[in-house]
Design brief:
- The chain is an alpha/beta fold.
- It folds into two domains: about 1-60, no CATH class; about 80-255, Nucleotidyltransferase, domain 5.
- It contains eleven helices and seven strands.
- It has helices at about 1-10, 15-25, 35-40, 55-60, 85-90, 135-150, 150-155, 170-175, 200-210, 225-235, 245-255; strands spanning about 95-105, 110-120, 125-130, 160, 185-190, 235-240, 245.
- Strands 3-2-1-4-5 form a five-stranded mixed β-sheet, with helices on both faces. A two-stranded antiparallel ribbon has the order 6-7.
- β6 (about 235-240) and β7 form a beta hairpin.
- α2 (about 15-25) packs across α3 (about 35-40) and α6 (about 135-150) crosses α7 (about 150-155).
- Mean pLDDT is about 85; it is low at about 60-75.
């Protein structure tokens, strides 16, 4: 059993939370709970496994939510997350995404990663941008719209929730289709210093960081390597999805 656990954590990069159900599925006589697996690891009973590679354990530091000071006068052209439909908040409807950038070294002149996460299925899209500017973000959105087609893009991207970074602030350009006069997507903006309002994006970014080290030069990561990272994350069993991968849940929504 110890070898099985070690292989899935170190080789397949799976967490104890995912390995525990696998033990049960394979009808292993010594199947144990997630909590027990963590205890075994803390006690040094799993060969080669320590707490260092356990990113899910390291992230479980509960952070207190800051009290948010509401701005009385909102930006005239931007729609606050407070006006986002409750169906989006409850993840009842497919097609609502969260948007963020992952930066490497300091400065806007260096390559970054743009991440888009579908809220209901947790499906992740990662795109490499030449820099952290609005022009690069708009170019990436236009490329996705082009590859999908104007109609299919509008159907799949009903809304996007972003933070208030300068690269996302021109709401008119963000919402407007690159190929028609119609709106391609509705933008909502989270409150400042409220990363939990884009929790799916934050969790996805942590998973990406397992493959793209913080502070590293993103320019050295090839498109193929980024694609492999995206594929691995989308096929990773997720507890919140009843141990189904995001790709499977996404495909079911598309087929519905």
């Amino acid at each position: 059993m110890a070898v099985f656990i070690s292989e899935h954590i170190l080789v397949h990069k799976r967490s104890p939370d995912v390995v525990a159900p696998l033990l049960k599925q394979e009808q292993r006589p010594a199947a144990v709970s997630t909590k027990t697996l963590y205890t075994y690891i803390d006690q040094g009973l799993i060969p080669g496994v320590s707490n260092e590679p356990l990113w899910e354990k390291r992230k479980r530091i509960k952070r207190k939510r800051r009290a948010i000071k509401r701005v009385k006068k909102q930006h005239a052209r931007r729609t606050s997350i407070e006006k986002r439909p409750k169906t989006v908040e409850k993840r009842e409807e497919f097609g609502h995404w969260e948007l963020d950038l992952i930066v490497g070294g300091k400065g806007t002149s260096k390559p970054v990663l743009m991440t888009l996460v579908e809220r209901k299925t947790r499906m992740l899209r990662v795109r490499k941008l030449s820099d952290k500017t609005q022009a690069s973000v708009l170019q990436a959105l236009k490329a996705i719209e082009r590859s999908m087609g104007v109609g299919p893009f509008r159907s799949m991207f009903k809304s996007i929730t972003a933070d208030n970074g300068s690269e996302f602030l021109d709401v008119e350009q963000m919402e407007r289709s690159g190929f028609s006069k119609k709106r391609r997507v509705k933008l909502y903006y989270a409150h400042p210093y409220s990363s939990w309002e884009r929790g799916s994006n934050e969790n996805a970014n942590r998973m990406v960081r397992r493959f793209v080290a913080k502070g590293d030069n993103i320019g050295k990561y090839t498109i193929d390597r980024i694609g492999e990272t995206e594929k691995w994350i989308n096929n990773y069993p997720r507890k919140i999805l009843e141990y189904k991968p995001a790709q499977e849940c996404f495909d079911l929504e598309i087929a519905a």
